[in-house]
Amino acid sequence: MDKLAIQGGRRLEGEISISGAKNAALPILCAALLTEETLHLDNLPKLKDISTTLTLLGHIGTQICLDEQGSIDLLADRLSTLQAPYELVKTMRASILVLGPLLTRYGEAMVSLPGGCAIGSRPVDLHIKGLKAMGADITIERGYIHAKAGRLKGARIFMDSVTVTGTENLMMAATLAEGITVLENAAREPEVEDLANCLIAMGADIRGAGTDTVTIHGVSRLHGAAYSIMADRIETGTYLVAAAMTQGKITLHRTRPDTLDAVIEKLREAGAKISCSNNSITLSMDRRPLAVTIKTAPYPAFPTDMQAQFMAMNCIATGVGSVTETIFENRFMHVQEMQRLGANIEIEGNTALVRGVDKLDGATVMATDLRASASLVLAALVAQGETVIERIYHIDRGYECIEEKFNQLGAHVKRIQRTGSGS
Ligand code: EPZ
């Protein structure tokens, strides 16, 4: 397995471009299953999770033509199977996003239960409950979701908890259902809105995406379209925190400042100077960050996917900051690893109390999940000496060309490729 070796102590300076958003691209790729015409997408990020999704869509029978610039044509006019096998789904939970499209277009789907992951049990009961409300007959047998339906029927669905992919799955299912579907307590994440905009370009009738009530008038068919994936707000936030921690000055291009209000607010509270245009953000930091208090919650509140990164910043901040995680039950896996670098963190329930220390010392640490891994890279950028991060396949799931982008900003990040079964 590959590792990253990072020499700490260098200020980040310069400019990079942000890639397309992983969490918008994943549902939008699955939307190709809703039409027998070609869906053309631009700004697709080159990530492990994207290639996993393409493997799954190819397995189902989607024809895929991908070019080097991150553009892709998908054509799902003759599918060979309606099954998403465990071998593929277990590597990426978001594979559940083929369930709604297959069921509403073909009346049947057999999708492996995704199972949990490092950060939590990650149930999909609300996806299933919503599809049943639309008339699907769903049973769970031997680890698979077996779903059958005539034409799905529109329904009013109250989501017991805010679920991003749950909202996306039901929204896609509703596009071809008979009648009107109203999703109440829907997720408001920008990626939900991006998916809705792509579906609307394909001929869907969707109103209210990005608010907590989404109304979908079912249509008989969707047509092909061309759509460009929105910028990745979590990648953007990650580089902004890196620049704040290293007291640097960076500009991020091809991004969406309007999707980062809560993150920008917290960075300003930490002492960063931030200016935004409509598609770029400049951050400069001329002092050690001030500790901030973070509490994660659904959009537009502070995003759980930025929690680990801000914990890294609190580790070397002035003062004491607290980080409360309200979305997932086990999203503090990065804490022990940061403690190996010398961080002073105490966990009490779902809150971590972080006392800023003057310095971290490089060590060997292990990545455990996507955003935890990113937070270890940030900590390594300020740690004294070299830090080696193992199991960085977690990072490659969600950060395109991470070492190239950080090195372009003046960091010293080297990928160590491990051949054979070496750890
Ligand atoms: C999406 O996951 C994102 N993934 C996650 O990003 C993100 O952390 C999460 O939303 C929250 O913002 C993608 O979009 C591919 P949820 P998702 O359903 O949809 C509970 C990353 O790092 N829940 O919004 O799987 C669930 O247990 C990843 O890029 C149910 O109880 O998350 C959790 O407590 C990590 N039943 C809460 O809702 C359900 O049926 C939010 O989960 C579904 C969810």
Q: Please indicate the percent range of residues in DSSP E strands (runs of 2 or more).
A: 15-25%
Low-pLDDT sequence parts: none
Ends: how far apart?
A: 6 Å
Question: Looking across the biggest beta sheet, what order are the strands in?
Answer: 22-23-1-24
Put simply, the count of helices is: 14
The general outline is globular
Largest sheet descriptor? 4 strands, mixed
Oligomer: single chain
Helix content: 25-40%
Q: How many β-strand runs?
A: 24
The overall pLDDT average reads: 96
The set of bound ligands, ions and cofactors reads: ligand EPZ
Radius of gyration: 21 Å
Name the features.
30% helix; globular; binds ligand EPZ
Structural overview:
By secondary structure, the chain is an alpha/beta fold. Helix content is 30%, strand content 24%. The protein is built from 14 helices and 24 strands. The chain has a 4-stranded mixed β-sheet with strand order 22-23-1-24. Strands 2-15-17-16 form a 4-stranded mixed β-sheet, covered by helices on one side. Strands 4-5-3-14 form a 4-stranded mixed β-sheet, with helices on one face. The radius of gyration is 21 Å and the shape is globular. The model has no long low-confidence stretch (mean pLDDT 96). The chain binds ligand EPZ. The site of ligand EPZ has 23 residues, from α1, α5, α6 and α12.
